[in-house]
Predict the structure.
Amino acid sequence: MFRNFRKNVFGKIKKYKSYVILMIIFMLLIYSAYEYYNKYFYMFKDPDKIKHIIMSYGKYSILAFFILQIIQVVAFFIPGEIVQIAGGYIYGTLGGSIISLLGITTGSMIVFGISHSLGKPLIDKVVSNKDANFFKRILNLGHINFMVFLLYLIPGIPKDVLAYICGVSNVTFKNFIIYSTLGRVPGIFISAYFGAKIDSGNKAVLIFIAVIMTMLFSIGVFKGEALVKKIIKHSSSKNK
């Protein structure tokens, strides 16, 4: 009896080997990010502290920042905006934007792949019902590629959670990467520009950018869904 039980268990493990490996990798990534977050929690509130940690890696600092951007996408509880601002603060507007975009895109590819492979059981564990229902409702409005672009473009929307949802939606991997990346570009650039100006001493510019970013973020949080629906409705009526 024990032999049959063991045979069945090992048979199932072998059958779902790829899923088991993906789950282990995912859990290791989340655990590593959680430990890193707890250890360096203080730095995620201050770009200057992020800069100190990143630059401590010397010639590997760019790689360290690239990996940090991947981690903040996979472990979406890490505030991505602060990391993006830090990118501009450390590497300038252009350099910070490019490294951030590459790291974030790589992280999004990993999240989409894991979510697509493991399916709904993973979504139920890592995404709240509120977020899951919100994004499913939006993505079901139609024009899914355009919807992905809009959701990533509008500030204040939890974009890294969205990557998990897209993995179990009808959007293809290729289209997800293209439209999500295009949608992220303006936000990443603005954050990097703000970070690059921290040391400029021009408080007026910093305050102006901060006010604009806060306004856009607030619009996204409180009016994001209504805005998306209005755009889709207008687009549909134009095509008739």
